[in-house]
TrEMBL record:
Protein's name in the database: Putative exonuclease GOR-like protein
Family as reported in the entry's similarity comment: Belongs to the REXO1/REXO3 family.
Record GO terms (molecular function): exonuclease activity; nucleic acid binding
Domain named Exonuclease: residues: 239-398
Organism of origin: Papilio machaon (Old World swallowtail butterfly)
Subcellular location: Nucleus
Amino acid composition bias (Basic residues), ranges on this chain: 44-55
Length: 420
């Protein structure tokens, strides 16, 4: 069995992502010589008496070279770049015009079933809510519903809690008008009987977790914008990178708290903690992996990180990620050359449903990510996204090679030979 080792110098990444050259099925963890790393295989090798009559196994014959340069990888990814229309539908920030750094974002209504709310979304709402320019912080939020008796009440905006689906109200300055416990399920709704993965209770049951405040995403379903504070690369720099960001809930919605960027060979290119600009309401540690003490030692602001990123990301650089729209919104980066593993490996029931990075990584790479209570690691998630993309490229190249080998060899027709 030949083993194709492809595209990377980082063997730690690839030890679990090598594939049988014949059947293209994952053959589990392997060493560089193609030997399985799993304990059962190791035990079998230990039990097997050594046969001295047999010659030592020859090293595996290198199969078709699979290593490709960053330029070749960029070329192979070109058909997978998201179109502006697709980016729009997926919630990517798009520029309003090429001269400004303002963005607009369209957020699809959540696909999961939600309990009935007192406030419903107005499907006839105008595309842009009056009020002019606003930031992604949600101040002047499109979801705002000023109503009231006092000045404070009149200035209130209403947000949807992304954990418990309740509406709650804040001042435009980010103060809660009513302190109300958020009772929620942190798990997803799964299975034919729609139960939460956190506690196995049915959809609509009382939350199994509680937090002091409700939290919101910083955007609302429908059109958001114009949003300020966005940046973009202006000149070409080439390259292919995978990026993952982790966010915390602040009074202004989800804000960037940590980011990691890796190159195609798995090399860490950039990593930083980020100080959110608004007061943190919930560190979201279960998912972000960010603890209060992490942010206490963060020194960089969003603006610092944007400048750092634009130091090596050009307008032609291909950025890879899983649900990268969330990361680019948090980073406030306008970028058009993106490959998203959500689109590369679509959900069986179609868009806008998305497969999780964890499920894709387990199924296709044979390794676990986002396990344990420590939360997500942006580095681990960026590597998983990069590996999923490299796997797709590898499979496409292998498929093309297989097809070309299967083509029948056509001989020139010679009636003299045929009639002989
Ligand atoms: Zn639960
Ligand atoms: Zn809530």
């Amino acid at each position: 069995m030949g083993v194709n080792s492809y595209m990377t110098a980082d063997r730690n990444i690839w030890k679990s992502s090598k594939f049988c050259a014949d059947c293209r099925l994952s053959v589990g963890n392997m060493t560089e010589t193609g030997a399985p790393l799993d304990s059962a295989g190791a035990a079998a090798r230990r039990r097997r008496p050594r046969d001295r009559r047999r010659p030592p196994p020859s090293p595996p014959t290198p199969s078709t070279p699979q290593r490709i340069s960053t330029e070749q990888l960029a070329e192979a990814l070109r058909p997978h770049l998201l179109s502006p229309k697709r980016m729009w539908a997926m919630g990517y920030p798009l520029e309003i015009d090429s001269t400004s750094s303002k963005a607009v974002v369209y957020i699809n209504p959540p696909p999961r079933p939600r309990p009935l709310q007192l406030t419903t979304w107005d499907v006839n709402a105008p595309e842009f809510v009056p009020g002019g320019s606003q930031s992604d912080s949600g101040r002047g939020s499109l979801g705002s519903t000023p109503r009231s008796d006092s000045d404070e009440e009149a200035d209130a905006v209403e947000h949807l809690c992304v954990r418990c689906d309740k509406m709650f109200r804040m001042t435009r300055e980010g103060e809660y008008l009513v302190e109300e416990t958020c009772s929620y399920h942190w798990g997803r709704v799964c299975g034919s009987d729609s139960r939460y993965t956190c506690c196995n209770m049915p959809l609509g049951s009382k939350g199994c977790s509680a937090a002091r405040f409700h939290v919101w995403s910083g955007t609302r379903p429908g059109m958001n914008g114009p949003l300020e504070g966005y940046v973009r690369a202006r000149s070409p720099r080439g390259g292919v990178y995978a990026l993952d960001a982790e966010m915390c809930y602040t009074t202004a919605g989800l804000e960037l708290a940590s980011i990691a960027v890796i190159a195609a060979d798995g090399r860490l290119v950039y990593k930083s903690l980020v100080k959110p600009s608004s007061p943190v309401v919930d560190h979201n540690t279960r998912f972000s992996g960010i603890r209060p003490r992490d942010l206490a030692r963060a020194t960089k602001t969003l603006r610092d990180v944007q400048n750092d990123i634009l130091g090596f990301v050009g307008n032609d650089t291909i950025l890879i990620g899983h649900a990268l729209d969330n990361d680019l919104r948090a980073l406030k980066l306008l970028h058009s050359a993106v490959v998203d593993t959500c689109a590369l490996y679509p959900h069986s029931r179609g868009f806008p449903l998305r497969r999780s990075l964890r499920a894709l990584s387990e199924e296709l790479l044979g390794r676990s990510v986002q396990r344990g209570s420590a939360g997500h690691s942006p580095l681990e998630d960026a590597r998983a996204a990069m590996d999923l993309v490299l796997l797709k490229v590898h499979e496409e190249r292998a498929s093309r090679a297989r097809l070309s080998n299967q083509l029948p060899i056509l001989q020139p027709y010679d009636p003299l030979v045929s009639s002989a």
